[in-house]
Design a protein that fits this description.
By secondary structure, this protein is an alpha+beta fold. Helices cover 20% and strands 25% of the residues. 17% of the residues are buried.
């Protein structure tokens, strides 16, 4: 008996980079701009949406450095959180220095 190939479930992704202006972490939003908060990011929920993000990136690439896809998972409260611990820390912003905790919290939709 031949088994069917297993397909891995798609993990939602966002595009992230660092702003060329100040070096802060930014996320590509659905309008093709860079937002400082993960809750404002355009979330790709399938491969077609990833391609749409890459198309949006073409117009925004000059404003950020080293853009890459970041895997995220939706939390019980409706917010998105990076899968990897390193990325969770990065999204939280600087933890020391004069700019510590400069990233604003996202209000949750009710």
């Amino acid at each position: 008996m031949k088994s069917e190939p297993m397909h891995a479930a798609f993990v939602p992704q966002v595009l992230t980079a660092n702003s060329l202006r100040d070096g802060h972490v930014v996320f590509l939003d659905r309008h093709g701009g860079w937002a400082p908060r993960l809750c404002d990011a355009a979330v790709a929920r399938d491969e077609a949406a990833v391609q749409a993000l890459m198309d949006l990136l073409q117009g925004a690439a000059a404003q950020a450095v080293e853009p890459y896809l970041l895997a995220v998972l939706k939390q019980a409260n409706g917010s998105w959180q990076p899968v990897e611990m390193r990325e969770r820390r990065r999204v939280q912003g600087p933890s020391v220095g004069p700019q510590a905790s400069t990233h604003g919290a996202c209000a949750l939709a009710t």
